[in-house]
Amino acid sequence: MNLIKIYLLIFFYYFISFSIYAIEPPKNLIVQVIEESKIQANTQSKNLNLISVKYSGWIFDSSISTKNYCAAKGEMFDSNILEKFNHTQPFQFVLGKGIVIKGWDLGLRGMRIEEKRCLVIPSHLAYGNRRIGNIIQPNSTLIFEVKLIDILEVEK
What is the pLDDT of residues 33-65, one digit of tens each? Predict the structure, then answer.
């Protein structure tokens, strides 16, 4: 009987620990500035700007013990910072045109050059129920750290 009590206590301890420290994926986009721009110019990114960014992306891992959504980084699936992903050039795209996932179009508005943001993007603002490659499963929440390198031109 004592052995059963011990097993139950261990089970409840792990169950409660996981419940307290696990973090559920957010239902809405989370945007967190993690590095302020040191440039004095007030130029901010807006829709139809051609912008240049450096980024890394991770799968959101709800089993990580944290209260900070940006810290719930699972497996890294892409980066143009690390050479292992075979592309280190800044990524350029027109903001707000639907060229990238919706979470980027929304989360990168109002950025200043050299600002770095963490975006925690729920699946409906990322790839939805589509599987992307071998890592991004359907309905995955994604985490990106994105640094704005430049605002190159304004599309007319």
Answer: 999 999 877 789 999 999 999 999 999 999 999
Summarised one tens digit per residue, pLDDT across range 60-114 is: 999 999 999 999 999 999 999 999 999 999 999 999 999 999 999 999 999 999 9
- Write the secondary structure of the chain as one string of H (helix), E (strand) and C (coil): CHHHHHHHHHHHHHHHHHHHHCCCCCCCCEEEEEECCCCCCCCECCCCEEEEEEEEEEEECCCCCCCCHHHCEEEEEEECCCHHHCCCCCEEEECCCCCCCHHHHHHCCCCECCCEEEEEECHHHCCCCCCECCCECCCCCEEEEEEEEEEEEECC
Task: Write the CA distances from 53 to 42, 58, 62, integer angstroms.
Answer: 18, 16, 27
pTM of the model: 0.84
What is the residue extent of each domain of the chain? 25-154
Whole-number Å distance between alpha carbons of 89 and 78: 13
Matching CATH number, 25-154, of 1.10.490.160, 3.40.50.920, 3.10.50.40, 3.90.1720.10: 3.10.50.40
